[in-house]
C-alpha cells in the first residue's frame, strides 16, 4: 500500500443557480448546474499509525480543528471506526498538507472540494472500501457542495444541492475574477430581499440554457450589498456573458476561444485576482484516483 497520495481538489462553477424554496430548517431548495473546472488546490495525505489527524500547513484564518480537511478526516475516522455491526477498531491517522490556490469564500467551493478529496483519498489510503454514496452522505454533514466533488462529474442538482444527476455540459473557457471582497454565504441566504420563489424547471429545460434560465438568483442581492462585485461584473460583461458562482464573490465570463479568454484575463489581471479555467465534465480527482 502506498503510504502517501498527492491529489487535486478542483473548483466548481454554478453555471446557473435558481432558488425555488426554503426548508423549515432555513436551508434553501436550489436548482443548479455544477461544472468542475481545471484549477485546483493540491493536497498530500500521508499515512500515520498513531491515529492522529494533523494539518501540517495551516490555512490562513481557519483554526486547525475547524478546517474542513481536518473535520472530514475525523468524521471518516469516527464513522469507519464505529461502523454498525463491526467491532470498534483502532484507526490509522494521517498528516495532511495543502497547497492552497483557490480563494476562500469565493463561491468556487474550495473548502468543500478539500473535504471531498480528503474523504476519497483517506478511503483509499486507509483501505476502507466505502462507496461514493456513503462518502457523499458523510460529506453532506460538512457542506452542501461536498457531494458533487465526491461523484466528480458535471451535475444537475436539486434539494440543497445533494440530489445529483450527472449531465454533460459544454466545456468552454472561463475567465474567473475575484472582486477582492468576501461574501458571506449565510448572510446572503438570510437576506430578506433574496429571490426565493423561482418556478422549478425541468432538467431538460435547464440544459437547453438560454439567457433567462442560465441566471444566478443570488446575483442581484450580492451586487446590491457588495458594490465591488457590481463594478467587476459590469467591467467583465463588456467582453462576454458573465455570472456569479454560488453566492460569490467570484464571477465568471464564458468564451469559446482560449486565446480570447487569455486576452481578457490579462486585462482583468491588472485589477483583480484572475484565473483562466477550462470547463470539465469529469474531475481530475477521479482521474488521479483511477475511479
Ligand atoms: C451556494 C452554493 O455554493 C451553491 O453551490 C452552496 O449551496 C453553498 O454550499 P456550502 O458553502 O457548502 O454551504 P454550507 O456550508 O452547507 O452552508 C452555509 C450556509 O448557507 C446557507 N445555505 C446553504 C446552502 C443551501 N442550499 N441553503 C442555505 O440556506 C445556510 O445558512 C448555511 O448555514
Ligand atoms: N480547507 C478549507 N479551505 C477553505 N475554506 C475552509 C477550509 N476549511 C474551512 N474553511 C472555511 O469555509 C469557508 C468557505 O470556504 P470555501 O472556499 O468553501 O467557500 P466558497 O468557495 O464560497 O464555497 P461555496 O461555493 O461552497 O459557498 C471559508 O471562509 C473558511 O472559513
Automatic annotation (TrEMBL):
Its EC number is 2.7.1.148. The active site is at 12, 145. Residues 67-152 form the GHMP kinase N-terminal domain. ATP binds at residues 103-113. Pathway: Isoprenoid biosynthesis; isopentenyl diphosphate biosynthesis via DXP pathway; isopentenyl diphosphate from 1-deoxy-D-xylulose 5-phosphate: step 3/6. Residues 213-266 form the GHMP kinase C-terminal domain. It catalyses: 4-CDP-2-C-methyl-D-erythritol + ATP = 4-CDP-2-C-methyl-D-erythritol 2-phosphate + ADP + H(+). SUPFAM superfamilies: GHMP Kinase, C-terminal domain, Ribosomal protein S5 domain 2-like. Pfam families: GHMP_kinases_C (PF08544), GHMP_kinases_N (PF00288). GO terms for molecular function: 4-(cytidine 5'-diphospho)-2-C-methyl-D-erythritol kinase activity. Keywords: ATP-binding, Isoprene biosynthesis, Kinase, Nucleotide-binding, Transferase. Catalyzes the phosphorylation of the position 2 hydroxy group of 4-diphosphocytidyl-2C-methyl-D-erythritol. Belongs to the GHMP kinase family. IspE subfamily. This is 4-diphosphocytidyl-2-C-methyl-D-erythritol kinase. It comes from Halomonas citrativorans. The lineage of its organism: Bacteria, Pseudomonadati, Pseudomonadota, Gammaproteobacteria, Oceanospirillales.
Amino acid at each position: 500500500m502506498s503510504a502517501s497520495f498527492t491529489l487535486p481538489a478542483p473548483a466548481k462553477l454554478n453555471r446557473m443557480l435558481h432558488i425555488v424554496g426554503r426548508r423549515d430548517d432555513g436551508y434553501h431548495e436550489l436548482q443548479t448546474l455544477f461544472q468542475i473546472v481545471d484549477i485546483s488546490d493540491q493536497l498530500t495525505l500521508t499515512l500515520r499509525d498513531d491515529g492522529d489527524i494533523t494539518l501540517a500547513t495551516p490555512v490562513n484564518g481557519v483554526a486547525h480543528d475547524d478546517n474542513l480537511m481536518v473535520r472530514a478526516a475525523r468524521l471518516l475516522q469516527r464513522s469507519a471506526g464505529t461502523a454498525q455491526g463491526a467491532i470498534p477498531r483502532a484507526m490509522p491517522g494521517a498528516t495532511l498538507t495543502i497547497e492552497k490556490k483557490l480563494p476562500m469564500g469565493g463561491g468556487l467551493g474550495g473548502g468543500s472540494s478539500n473535504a471531498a478529496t480528503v474523504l476519497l483519498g483517506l478511503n483509499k489510503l486507509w483501505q476502507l472500501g466505502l462507496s461514493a454514496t456513503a462518502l457523499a452522505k458523510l460529506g453532506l454533514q460538512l457542506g452542501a457542495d461536498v457531494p458533487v466533488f465526491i461523484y466528480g462529474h458535471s451535475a444537475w442538482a436539486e434539494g440543497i444541492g445533494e440530489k445529483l444527476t450527472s449531465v454533460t455540459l459544454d466545456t468552454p473557457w472561463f475567465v474567473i475574477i475575484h472582486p477582492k471582497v468576501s461574501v458571506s454565504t449565510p448572510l446572503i441566504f438570510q437576506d430578506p430581499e433574496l429571490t426565493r420563489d423561482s418556478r422549478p424547471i425541468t432538467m431538460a429545460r435547464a440544459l437547453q440554457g438560454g439567457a433567462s434560465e442560465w441566471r444566478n438568483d443570488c446575483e442581484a442581492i450580492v451586487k446590491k450589498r457588495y458594490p465591488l462585485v457590481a463594478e467587476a461584473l459590469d467591467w467583465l460583461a463588456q467582453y462576454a456573458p458573465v455570472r456569479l458562482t454560488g453566492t460569490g464573490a467570484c464571477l465568471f465570463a464564458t468564451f469559446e476561444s482560449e486565446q480570447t479568454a487569455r486576452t481578457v484575463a490579462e486585462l482583468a489581471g491588472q485589477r483583480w485576482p484572475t484565473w483562466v479555467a477550462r470547463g470539465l465534465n469529469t474531475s481530475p480527482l477521479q482521474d488521479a484516483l483511477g475511479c
